Structure formats: C-alpha cells, structure tokens
Amino acid sequence: MNDLISIIVPLHNVEQYLERCINSILQQTYQNLEIILIDDGSTDGSAKICDDYASKDSRIKVIHKQKAGVSAARNSGFAIATGTYIGCVDSDDWIEPDMYETMYRATQSYQVPIAFCRYASVFEHETYARGTGKEFLFSREELLRNYINDSEEYVINNSVWSKLFHRDLAKDILFAEGRVSEDIMYTTRLLCKLEQGVYIDRCLYNYKQDRPGSIMNSNRVQRVIQDEIPFWKEHISYVREHVSDEMGDYAAYYFYRRMMLYYTDLKGNKENKLLVQKIAKLMKREKKDIISIYSGKTGTTGDKVRMRLFLFSPKLYYWMNETYGAVVVPLKQR
Predict the structure, then answer these.
(1) Could you give the 3-state DSSP secondary structure of residue 11?
(2) Which of 97, 91, 87 is nearest to 28 (CA)?
(3) What pTM value is reported for the model?
(4) Based on the domain organization, do 63 and 144 belong to the same domain?
C-alpha cells in the first residue's frame, strides 16, 4: 500500500483563496492523504470553511488556535501529523492534480527521502512557468549549491511547499516561531541531513505572489533586517559546521552578493532608506571577510569586480549601475 502523506496547511484570513487551495489537495491523483488545516486565529470566514470541509471528508483534520504566526501553526500541524511523508501548502496557493503522486513516485524510484519541484509564479494578470519535465538525482552538495546560488535552472528554493520529505528527515527540526523567512533555516537543516534527493523540473506548485496582506508582500524592511539577514547568517554558520568550510564560504559568497543586489534594488526608494543603510553598514563591517571570500575560487570575474567597486563606495557603485542601465543597455539594444 502507498504511504500516507500528511499535508500541512497553515491559514489566516484567506477565505477568498482557501477553497481553491483545499480543492486542489482533495483532487490529487494520490489519495492516501492526511490533510491538516491549522486556523491561526482567523476572523473572517476561513474557520467555517475548514470545519465544513472536515465534515465532508474524513481525511481532513482542523486545528483552531489563537494567532501565533505561520511557524507556530506549522509546528502544530507537524506535531499531530501521522504520515510517513510530509508536504506543505500555503493557503493562498494551489497545487497541480498530480503533484504528490509525481513527487512520491520519484522518492520511491530513486530511493531518496525528499523530492523537490519547480513552481509557477502567479500574478493577477500573468503567470510565469517553465520546466523540462525531467527528473534529476542530486547529491547533497549539488542540492546545496543550487539552493545557495539561487539557481534558475534547478530551483531548489527555501520554501517548504516545493518539497515532499520523509518524516524521519524532519525529526527534531522546528520552525522558528514569532519570525518570518523561517523556511531558510528549516530547508538548510533538511539539506544538510541528506545524502541524495530528486529534483523534478516541472511546475507542480502554483505560488500566488501578489496577494494583498501577504506577509511576504508587507513590511519588507522589517522582515529583511529582523529575520532574513539573521537567518542567512545562521545558514552560513550551519552549513560550515555540518558540511564543510568550503561550502560555508560558498554560502557566504552568495549571501554578500545578495546583499549587494538588495542595496542596488532598494536604494532608489526613500521608504527603504533604513534597510539600505543597514546593508551598507553590514558590508563595511565585514569588508575583510568579504575580500577574503571573494578572493577565492567561487564566482565570476564580473561578480568580483562589482564587489570590489561596491566595497570601495556603495553610492558610486549604485550610480554606475544606474548609469549603465539607463545609457549603455539601451545603446546595445539598438
């Protein structure tokens, strides 16, 4: 008999999207499911929708709790999950009908404890989706490198909803409560415990990117300063300790590259002034480490030149980057 899969769905005030999400799970071609809906203190009609669905399908369990955030909600779901495999779906997203059948079959075919998939980025007026449909067996190091460098070819991102994993792999791993961007360290810990995993280059998950009120679309400055940057720093230390110094340097390289890109993306908006200043101070404070890491084998010559210029003067780098985009790129396109 096929293994039971537990699907964890945290939710808060998403009545407009919730039925689409739940229906996409119920309509899975893989039917041996345990569906755990965690109502995180909703004040709209979400709680009733959950209870109505549970009354019609015995596979659905509902937890109603006071609002404590998505991490606490997920931890509550994991605590009662009885499936051999675990999947997560965000309540404003939806999944393709064969997502869990495809991912489960891949774990069995390759004898690995985890499968990853590509996702479609869904906006109000357009959807971005790609993929070859191929499957790839990767070692831990290959998965980590694709995760760390934010590969567009093999999308091993930090979000737990793009994964199906054996419950033993997640043993003793919890989401950090009271914070956002919590998937960063959860996924880092999962990857560091692996020997191999399978990547499915197909959009099996539909990620709603522009929902009003979404955590990921609000309070960006606070989120990056208080949660994202500390989590990425913790990620570097964890990779260095549990994998190797070389992989730790690789993670640090791409963290600093990310910070440089954040600076140039955000500096033009006055609302991001605090975050831009925070990034500039961080890079200045850690300049010696950055120079050491960027002197190694990792990365391209172009990246290293840009980083040297940025460390010399972030403002000068920003001005040159803007000038290049406004003058040189249009000339090349003529």
Answers:
(1) strand
(2) 97
(3) 0.90
(4) yes
